[in-house]
## 1
Amino acid sequence: MKLAVIGTGYVGLVSGVCFTLNGNHVICVDKDEEKINKLNRMESPIYEPGIEALIEVNLREGRLSFSSDLTDSVRRSDIIILAVGTPSLPNGEADLQYIEGAAAEVGRAMDGYKIIMTKSTVPVGTNEKIRKMIASQTTYPFDIVSAPEFLREGSAISDTLHPDRIVIGLDNPDLEPVMRKLHQGFTENVFVTDIRSAEMIKYASNAFLATKISFINEIANICEKVGADVTEVAQGMGMDRRIGSSFLQAGIGYGGSCFPKDTNALIQIAGNVDYEFKLLESVVEVNKGQRFMIISKLHESLGSLRGAVIGIWGLAFKPNTDDVREAPAREIVEALVAEGAIVKLFDPIAADNFRKQYDHPQLRWCSLPEEAAKDSDAVCLLTDWSLFRDIDLHKLAQSMRKQILIDGRNLYTKQQIEGTGLEYHSVGRPQMGGLSGYSQSVAGAV
Ligand SMILES: NC(=O)C1=CN([C@@H]2O[C@H](COP(=O)(O)OP(=O)(O)OC[C@H]3O[C@@H](n4cnc5c(N)ncnc54)[C@H](O)[C@@H]3O)[C@@H](O)[C@H]2O)C=CC1
Ligand SMILES: O=C(O)[C@H]1O[C@H](OP(=O)(O)OP(=O)(O)OC[C@H]2O[C@@H](n3ccc(=O)[nH]c3=O)[C@H](O)[C@@H]2O)[C@H](O)[C@@H](O)[C@@H]1O
């Protein structure tokens, strides 16, 4: 089959490249010519492990091409995949200007029957709007399919090639065999439903995962006060298959380009039909507060932060990506700057992207984690990059002015911390290398 994928962000690029692997010819289209030029030089505009190798081999073998000419690409394709951004408007609602713009352009370009498949995350009813928009631009016949995407940044290729399920929303049952063929070899788990339910499955899935994270973060906050260990609690809970062990990692809360925007959009979708989604509102609220736990812990250990030197390890919203959209690190660093701290920042991949969005005279940019830690009063780990796991914590303690390590992702084990001389604070676990939060509150009560 011949496909045109509109938008070369994570979803467009990764799904476009992966669709070549089951024998399709794919044109990835973007209006951003700089991105297309980069891609034609076999350079990926996104950091995603494995993507450049796949681009290279598929470009060479002629199954993949990149273009900024939407009209020509649409005309040369049978299936058009919409994968443009749907960011948040200031009120939290999804901004549909890019998807509507792309749909209208596709409509104008059509010169025969096409299947138009939406991969962007869009509010319930959007595919119907897209249908009307295209119909207003063309007299050629077409079908609409909703095929929401569930990949995660950092593991996007394996998530696409081996997904738990593929969701297909359609209203013309004749399309089912084509859709199954398109996804052939990825998984047998293809769930076919109506378009509105498919749109809702995407939001409900992201909202549920965000709920698991805020839930375990609240459990973590209580664990700290009662002397339990949230990592043990999560493990014990997760062994119940009805609960499941994934997405129960306590920390500084979720970030990224999707959970924050999609939870807010679902609250708005509900609000638009006069339904107050109270549970999800609380999930968002808990998440907003969780990152400031880092600042509270610094205050507990150091008192005022004016003039303090704080090392920051990790700026990306999660490891294996250079994406800093809605990264908790941003607000944490801004709060430290506002309190008068000097902040030494390190991230193996995302520092440039972070710096483009935020810079300040109190920030010092470091090219190694050890450099960010040297002579600092505390180090705060905000992204669980695996390279931090291998750092020599004994040497680290010796290089710091004060030996305080605040681990916002529970990366280290008790064994790694013991004997290092570090005062170690993590999330929802007893403090190591000093008085625990539990011991302090018990001591205070007697
Ligand atoms: N980033 C992720 O991991 C995931 C994202 N999604 C959803 O997929 C959608 C896309 O997200 P990202 O891949 O992060 O997108 P992105 O925002 O990084 O990239 C979108 C691209 O579309 C291009 N574009 C916009 N209008 C265009 C037009 N008319 N013609 C050609 N190109 C156009 C832009 O130039 C941009 O390069 C969003 O709805 C998002 O919620 C879904 C699952 C995972
Ligand atoms: O719609 C989307 O864009 C995507 O959003 C998420 O994917 P992604 O944002 O790439 O990353 P996740 O691995 O889900 O992590 C999101 C955030 O939650 C945090 N997280 C995740 C898991 C956990 O147990 N605890 C936790 O704090 C991560 O650190 C990160 O900040 C979903 O997992 C994907 O299924 C979905 O397709």
Note: Residues 202-288 form a domain with the N-(1-d-carboxylethyl)-l-norvaline Dehydrogenase; domain 2 fold (CATH 1.10.1040.10).
## 2
Amino acid sequence: MSISAVSSGGPSPGAAGPEPVVEMRGVDVVRGTAHLLRGIGWSVLPDQRWVVLGPNGAGKTTLLQLAGAHMHPTRGEVRLLGETMGAVDVFELRPRIGLTSAALAQRIQPGERTGDVVLSAGYAVVGRGRERYDIDDLTRAAALMHQWGVQAVAHRSFGTLSEGERKRVQIARALMTDPELLLLDEPGAGLDLGGREDLVARLAALAGSPSAPAQVLVTHHVEEIPPGYTHALLLREGAVVASGPLAQVLNGEALSQTFGLPLTLERPGGRYTARRR
Ligand SMILES: Nc1ncnc2c1ncn2[C@@H]1O[C@H](COP(=O)(O)OP(=O)(O)OP(=O)(O)O)[C@@H](O)[C@H]1O
């Protein structure tokens, strides 16, 4: 099997510009009496890199589940890679979207060989079974493991890796299918300072690559926003506080409103930092 030949989702003929990879209109997600998301409107273009910021329980993971075709909205329209959710086979859509999350990481058996965790992504399975891989797959997996600094641990079992190595293995796996959209749910969670800085630098390099997919990064921490990210969506209690180009929407006032406490935001050396006012 070759899993590297995936269309790049370019502009449709006659269209004024590139088609959004994510488009949400009037989206609500309701569970019982709980409104997880309300009235979400959001559009992500192929060359954009978005950070989604918000406190615990704001609805960030729910938003990423929708964008990853792992959930349907209760109301409203979600279009992913030009397809409308509800009118498309999600099993055809999901390989075109790379997703990393704590929930997916928990499905990886600690005894799985790390190289197989990356390689098996094309079959949407965790770990190697009876699948057959061709030389292109093996070459791509090796290149991605090199790019994410985990080639040296390819033969180790996943359970023996450090948290930083695990996070980078998951991103390499998410990129294995050459996705048109990469969704990263709190990739910096649980990392020490060195691990975080290494991850931010690698994500900044990916953000700067013109051939890289559209990217959406969920985090609680402005310090984790990689240089090169272009847009921000700020969420609070399931609703959008602000959304748009990073330089326009990310400021102390919007951040204070999002997190519900008075904050100042600074950007020394191209990196953001926030503290209580
Ligand atoms: N099935 C469900 N039924 C009721 N409430 C739910 C359900 N799933 C999630 N929630 C609630 O919806 C809210 C949003 O959850 P979500 O995981 O999207 O938030 P989050 O912003 O990712 O939070 P965190 O930063 O803590 O990971 C939370 O209050 C959560 O408890």
Note: Residues 1-14 have pLDDT under 50 and may be disordered.
